[in-house]
Design brief:
This protein has 118 residues and is mostly helical. The protein has helices at 7-17, 21-30, 33-43, 46-59, 63-71, 75-81, 86-100, 103-116. The chain is globular. InterPro entries: ARM-like (IPR011989), ARM-type_fold (IPR016024), Armadillo (IPR000225), RSP14 (IPR042856). It comes from Hevea brasiliensis (Para rubber tree).
Length: 118
């Protein structure tokens, strides 16, 4: 639904620039935008992936958003991004560091990694 409405570029710009961050996070979480962002991270072109990874990096600073990110299956994608262009590497590393701060979600990340290598 977000894609059809053309909301994704607006969300990316909003989070990339950091405008209204505190008020926007709850809107993103409630709208189920995280799976859409993860899908764009997986399948988007280089520019889109750079902007989406920046948006996800912003989301990863919020504890509740880290929980949503943990459920999204993004950790294997982020690990792959560590071998990409510099902007993607930086954003992926930032996200992974932020996700590691939440010990409750660590089991979820480890399960994703196990699935990736099975």
């Amino acid at each position: 639904m977000l894609v059809e409405l053309g909301a994704i570029p607006l969300l990316i710009e909003l989070f990339q620039d950091g405008h209204c961050y505190k008020h926007s996070v709850s809107v993103v979480r409630k709208s189920d935008a995280v799976p859409v962002l993860v899908e764009l991270l997986r399948d988007g072109n280089g520019e889109v992936r750079g902007k989406v990874s920046g948006a996800i990096a912003q989301l990863s600073y919020n504890e509740a958003d880290r929980a949503a990110l943990a459920d999204s299956g993004e950790v294997p994608i982020l690990i792959e991004l560590l071998y990409e262009l510099e902007e993607l590497k930086d954003n992926a590393a930032e996200i992974l560091v932020n996700l590691a701060e939440d010990p409750c979600s660590m089991i979820q990340y480890l399960k994703q990694l196990m699935f990736l290598h099975s």
